Structures are given as structure tokens and as C-alpha cells.
């Protein structure tokens, strides 16, 4: 009876491959186990111009072992996070699989279970709006802004400064204006 069972198992493995542990879970987390995920961004969050400072912060964590990104996202959007991981000397991989489901765009993971309760990162626009930052300033991520706007960001959330440059007098001489309120100038 036991030999018959072993034969069936061997045939099943031969026909379908070795069964994967928690396959249904892993297709939502880019091939990773949920308990190893420290932070997650959605596809739409990765496609934003700005870098999420929460990702930078968790990449610096000694528990972090790698950054995993969804290969179905265009490379220009992934590039900023790939460069961030390289600066911090963390491995970065892009995974593509037609079986992936859900909205996972990027994961920061550990090779062992960390069981983080909350892995989702709040939308940047929501968080900064709650902190009193005007929408025009939030949308100016990736650009140079005036000194007063730069200070406003620094006071609200200093970690967000990675997404902005400060206008210099040379920039202003060249005609550049702060995109957060240049209609007023």
C-alpha cells in the first residue's frame, strides 16, 4: 500500500513538478512569503515620481536582505529604487511572472520571517496633505523648489527632502521658478 502511494507521489511530481509551499500567497507577493515582507508599495506608488522615504528607511534596517520589484512595471519607474538599493548596498531583483496577482509593485524583504503587522505604506499624497503640505508642493516632487517651500517640507517631514532640490540664485537668474507657487511670483 505504501509503495503504491510513493509511486503516485513520484508520478505527480514528474507530471506537475515539486509542489510549492504557499503558492497562492506567493503570487501576491512577487514570489516571497508574506511573513518575510517588511514593506510593500503598490504598482501605482512605484509609478509616482517621488521615492517613498519609508522604503529608504526600511532598506537601511539591518534585518533587510533585499528589494524585490515587479517586472511588469516600466523600467524608468523601477530605476530610482534600484539606485537607492545600490547606494545602501542591498541586493535588488526584478521578478516577472504572468501568474502574479494583485497590486504589489515593490517589496522590501528579509530571508527569515519578520511578521510585520502592517506592510502597506500610506499614499504619499494623503500623508503629506494630512501634514499640511499643499497639493502643488506635493506634486513638485523631483523638482527644485524655493527656500520657503523647502523649509515647509523639512518641518513637516524631513525624510521627504530626498524628493526635492532647492532653487539657487543661479536657477532663478536662468528663469526657473518654484513649481509649488510660481503663478504667484
3D structure, described in words:
With 185 residues, this protein is α/β, with parallel strands linked by helices. The protein has 2 domains: 22-109, 2-Layer Sandwich (60s Ribosomal Protein L30, Chain: A), CATH 3.30.1330.30; 124-184, no CATH class. Helices cover 38% and strands 14% of the residues. It has helices at 2-16, 23-26, 43-46, 53-59, 75-88, 124-130, 135-138, 147-156, 169-173, and strands spanning 37-42, 66-70, 92-95, 104-109, 144-145, 165-166. Strands 1-4-2-3 form a 4-stranded mixed β-sheet. α8 (147-156) links the parallel β5 (144-145) and β6 (165-166).
Portion in helices: 25-40%
Average of pLDDT? 89
Q: Supply the CATH superfamily name of the largest domain.
A: Ribosomal protein L30/S12
Radius of gyration: 22 Å
Summarize the structure.
By secondary structure, the chain is α/β, with parallel strands linked by helices. It is 38% helix and 14% strand.
How would the blueprint of this fold be written?
Layout: H1 2-16, H2 23-26, E1 37-42, H3 43-46, H4 53-59, E2 66-70, H5 75-88, E3 92-95, E4 104-109, H6 124-130, H7 135-138, E5 144-145, H8 147-156, E6 165-166, H9 169-173
Q: What are the key terms here?
A:
185 residues; alpha/beta; 60s Ribosomal Protein L30, Chain: A; four-stranded mixed beta sheet; two-stranded parallel ribbon; 9 helices; 38% helix; 14% strand; elongated
Amino acid at each position: 500500500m505504501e509503495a503504491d502511494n510513493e509511486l503516485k507521489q513520484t508520478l505527480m511530481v514528474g507530471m506537475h513538478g515539486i509542489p510549492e509551499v504557499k503558492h497562492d500567497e506567493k503570487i501576491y507577493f512577487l514570489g516571497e512569503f508574506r511573513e518575510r515582507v517588511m514593506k510593500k508599495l503598490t504598482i501605482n506608488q512605484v509609478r509616482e515620481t517621488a521615492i517613498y522615504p519609508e522604503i529608504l528607511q526600511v532598506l537601511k534596517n539591518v534585518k533587510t536582505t533585499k528589494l524585490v520589484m515587479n517586472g511588469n512595471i516600466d523600467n524608468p519607474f523601477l530605476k530610482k529604487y534600484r539606485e537607492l538599493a545600490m547606494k545602501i548596498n542591498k541586493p535588488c531583483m526584478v521578478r516577472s511572472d504572468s501568474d502574479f496577482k494583485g497590486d504589489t509593485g515593490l517589496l522590501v524583504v528579509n530571508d527569515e520571517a519578520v511578521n510585520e503587522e502592517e506592510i502597506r505604506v500610506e499614499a504619499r499624497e494623503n500623508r503629506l496633505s494630512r501634514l499640511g503640505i499643499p497639493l502643488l508642493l506635493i506634486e513638485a516632487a523631483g523638482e527644485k523648489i524655493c527656500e520657503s517651500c523647502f523649509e515647509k517640507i523639512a518641518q513637516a517631514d524631513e525624510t521627504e527632502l530626498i524628493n526635492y532640490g532647492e532653487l539657487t540664485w543661479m536657477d532663478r537668474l536662468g528663469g526657473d521658478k518654484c513649481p509649488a507657487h510660481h503663478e504667484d511670483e
